[in-house]
Model the fold of this input.
Amino acid sequence: AQSVTQLGSHVSVSEGALVLLRCNYSSSVPPYLFWYVQYPNQGLQLLLKYTSAATLVKGINGFEAEFKKSETSFHLTKPSAHMSDAAEYFCAVSLRGGNTGKLIFGQGTTLQVKP
Amino acid sequence: DTAVSQTPKYLVTQMGNDKSIKCEQNLGHDTMYWYKQDSKKFLKIMFSYNNKELIINETVPNRFSPKSPDKAHLNLHINSLELGDSAVYFCASSVVAGTGELFFGEGSRLTVL
Done:
């Protein structure tokens, strides 16, 4: 069975500081991995996805994530936080080659950005 | 022009009532979903339809009945509402089932009193 664990339900950084949101996954087959962002009172928006051989994935708004199979991790980073990055971030996994499109989400990490 | 739109955005109702949430996508996608987000922001899939055919039904109480009249629409009807049904319900769509890249609506916040 697949699962996702996000380490840290709340992360607080200062504006301009590095953002690091942690995600570990469990999957019996090579997975597809995703990061979504949810701004207050809005739906989820795709930040980036890992679906192929490129282990360093660049997404929107300056975010990137690195797939590390040996560590079963897919941590999200951004070199310099902006106030506008404050939101809820979700890591998700789906079954590679599956035909259901079912996403399993982590429990989410709230990112707070302090001025 | 909203890609995935849900109505209503907010719904407040009494226990025991029946309510519906509608979803429409104009992206030409084949697959649509309903996800439930609880008060702790945990997201869980409820249903998925591919070209009007139900392909995922995640042990949801049968008080919840999805209906897909065509591949651009997926509605959710809930009978005999309970307090525990209070949540935000998200509709989503994707191009091909299996890739996991979903496009979400803005959510419908249901409050059961």
